[in-house]
Amino acid sequence: MLPYRIATAALLATIATSQMLPASAQTTRDQPPPPPTFATPIHDARVVFPTTVSQGAMVIGKVPPGSEVRYGSRVLRVTPYGSIVLGVGRDETGPLAISVRRKDGTSQRINITVTPRDWPIERINGVPPSTVNPPPAITARIQREQASVVAVRTRDDARTDFAQTFIWPVQGRISGRFGNQRIYNGTPKSAHSGMDIAAASGTPVKAPAAGVVTFADANLYLTGGTLVVDHGHGVSSNFLHLSRIDVKVGDRVEQGQVVAAVGATGRATGPHLHWGMNWFDVRIDPLLLVQ
């Protein structure tokens, strides 16, 4: 996973300095440069994407400003400087097909190879049985609560907070990894949607990047204290099992700001922070974004 993080940081810096590589070039594997400033000249007509990405990656590319960019059924938002972002799902096999139509009518198609990853099985015992196989009334509640979280992930703000180099929201042992198959009390469940970081209850949780709070609820059935911060262009972070939430919906938060505290609420066997990330409805791996 480390080479992809380095390559992504290098692409960000390339965009910032306008020293762009052709789409077929290999991305650098040197040490990550400083965060981008998005100072690309508006006349730059080049199209730049990484040639290879990992399952679970967030991908940033460069196109001529004013272009129409399509990925699957979605038209992607383009910044005034020509930057775009998209997410690669856990089970995506690729290649990713991206079409770019410039303002002058010329077009270009980009194919990006997707590197597969291994997804180990994680067995978690000691979880309250009612959270593994809940009765019908609780199942209905879970569905309502999850639908409310899904709804805020449809936002497509023009903010470019996602372009920051993400920092760790807490420091601690990684106790659960993105994408791993979960078996609770012997019952197979869906793959893990984020990264678990073990930390003491009450440990401050910091915003890994700037953004706007779009969801905050201290008492969801499965995820307990739940917070969602939107980073723009469909990219968002969610923080689960919180013991305390320090911000409210609509608040602007800056990178490093304390937004909550670690807890063990909802379906949890001990205090930890679940940090998940999404590009709209596509779950992506936070571990690929932090230094």
Overall description:
The protein is globular, with a radius of gyration of 19 Å. The chain has 2 domains: 2-115, Immunoglobulin-like, CATH 2.60.40; 121-288, Glucose Permease (Domain IIA), CATH 2.70.70. Strands 9, 12, 14, 15, 16, 18, 20 and 21 form an 8-stranded antiparallel sheet that branches. The chain has a 5-stranded mixed sheet with strand order 1-7-6-3-4, with no helix packed on it. A hairpin with a 2-residue loop joins β15 and β16. The chain starts with a helix and ends in a 7-residue tail after the last strand. It contains 3 helices and 21 strands. With 291 residues, the protein is mainly beta. The chain is 13% helix and 36% strand. Residues 1-7 and 12-42 have low confidence and may be disordered.
Write the layout of secondary structure elements.
Elements: H1 2-17, E1 52-54, E2 58-62, E3 68-71, E4 74-76, E5 83-87, E6 96-101, E7 107-115, E8 121-124, H2 129-132, H3 136-152, E9 173-176, E10 181-184, E11 187-191, E12 194-198, E13 204-206, E14 211-220, E15 224-232, E16 235-242, E17 244-245, E18 252-253, E19 258-261, E20 272-279, E21 282-284
Parallel strand pairs: 1-7, 8-10
Antiparallel strand pairs: 2-5, 3-4, 3-6, 6-7, 9-12, 10-11, 12-20, 13-19, 14-15, 14-18, 15-16, 16-20, 17-19, 20-21
